[in-house]
Amino acid sequence: MKPIEWLGNKLKIIDQTQLPGNLVFVELRDYTDVVAAIKQMKVRGAPAIGVAAAYGIALGAQNIKAETKAKFLRQFDKILQAFTAARPTGVNLFRAINRMKKMATEAEFTTVKQALIDEAKRIHAEEETATKQLSQLGAELIKDGFTVLTHCNAGALATAGYGTALGVIKAATEQGKKIEVIATETRPLLQGSRLTAWELMQENIPVTLITDSMAGYFMSRGKVDCVIVGADRIAANGDTANKIGTYTLAVLAKENGVPFYVAAPTSTIDLSLKSGAQIPIEERNPEEVTSIKGVRLAPKGVKAVNPAFDVTPHKYITAIITEKGIIRKPYLGSLKNLLRG
Ligand code: MRU
User: Fold this and answer.
1) How many CB atoms lie within 10 A of CB 292?
2) 15, 44, 127, 261: residue to mutate for ligand 1 pocket, most atoms within 8 A of CB
3) Is 38 a residue whose pLDDT tops 80?
4) Start-to-end CA span in the chain (Å)
5) Which residues form the pocket of ligand 1, taking CB atoms under 6 Å from any ligand atom?
6) pTM (2 d.p.)
7) Mean pLDDT confidence for 326-338
8) What is the mean pLDDT of residues 150-176?
9) Is 232 a catalytic residue?
């Protein structure tokens, strides 16, 4: 399965909004289509958004007509701005934008378009390698016979690679361990029931779906050996933004003595932010709360709010699994050293 594929002059993606009912691939021919796909969450998950944006920026650059580098860069900047406004929380998007900007600035005018395609391919390849490596490292934490609870979707779909939280589960299974997964449905957009359940079933990994509100019940009865989730942005002190509901799970895990792991490539770490309080949280349309797939579930006119992410304070996180190693408290110095090393 290739959730994101560069086809030379266009980008092919799985439309994740159509899963699990239909496995639909769409071809994006213009950078504005890629921006729209990110906003509409046809492509989603922090690392996958970064990869899609890099290809989208390269795609936009191919269509620029300019006689000088300065004119090229002026038009290129508009493309970058469109991606900057796509989604605010996941840092991989901004990391990809900055890398593409640097490449455009440094490359020779005659070869800049190809250089941008090459950089996007590098970003994609790096995510593939990082997610594979962190999954193998993280698998050490998962023992034979474990039941692992996960939230949202942090699999191949979300990374355009091997996956992070689901990657660790997959790698443990490939090592011959018998693993059971409990997937929370992840309201409002149901990434757990629509995507995680689907991905795990494709891989023949046993999965049981629960509603978000059932997690405490299962943890309190000793039915969960560890929780493992992905991340959208990790601040320098280890505070982690991830899908709304992650914080609740972390507190429940602590209360019940269940280890709580975050799995993420180092491209998700943002050392420029001291703590999670500085992470911008995306507010989405309240209709995602009052309806599911266009079916209204709440009285017309009711007030609703829709923060898409929350921040889990580092004190609740047992370890952060990255491709460069598994980090434990205190995170502040360790994350800095990890990125430098
Ligand atoms: O709103 P989404 O579906 O893009 O949110 C995704 C998540 O919160 C994931 O857990 C996170 O991006 C990690 S994906 C490897």
Assistant:
1) 13
2) 44
3) yes
4) 33
5) 44-47, 90, 152, 154, 158-159, 164, 191, 230-232, 242-243, 308
6) 0.97
7) 94
8) 98
9) yes
